[in-house]
Amino acid sequence: MRATVDFAPLFRSSVGFDRMLNALDLASRIPTVDNWPPYDIVKTGEDDYRIDMAVAGLAENDLTITQERNTLVVTGRKAPEPQSAAEYLHRGIAGREFERRFDLAEHMKVTNAHFENGLLSITLKREIPEAMKPRRIAITSSTTRAEEAVPQIEARKEAA
């Protein structure tokens, strides 16, 4: 039996994290059904990530990668094999169709996809727009404005 987590305290003490908290709540309720193909998620830098998927039995032409808003979808559909005289005694390399979805954070972009030796590597980068990066806000007070005004008034008296 899976224990449920109550996210109510987080909703009370956070602002603007509704989407993330709802995603956590949903993820805790939905059991993972399919674990194929196996994959790794690697953090390669401050804002750089890589997803490595083992897709043995599939070719580069059998794979499709699409990014729809904040979702990365990797699909594999093997082209039908022509009939051959070969008879398989054991078929252990999975070549079945799959669709794997990854929820991406805001401002994540796929920068590269590389396929080699049955391993698909997808490189992602978080690119936060300049307008959304943290900035320092100057703090002023009534005494600061008064001090700035005094030299200007004295300068005007001296000129007269």
TrEMBL record:
Give the highest taxon in the source lineage. Bacteria
- UniProt region (Disordered), positions on chain: 140-160
Q: Which of UniProt's keywords are assigned here?
A: Stress response
- Domain SHSP as annotated: residue spans: 30-142
Q: Which Gene3D superfamilies match?
A: 2.60.40.790
Mark the transmembrane ranges.
none
Please name the Pfam families in this protein's record.
Answer: HSP20
PROSITE patterns attached to this UniProt entry? SHSP (PS01031)
Q: What is the similarity comment for this entry? A: Belongs to the small heat shock protein (HSP20) family.
Q: What is this protein called?
A: Hsp20 family protein
Give the originating organism: Acetobacter musti
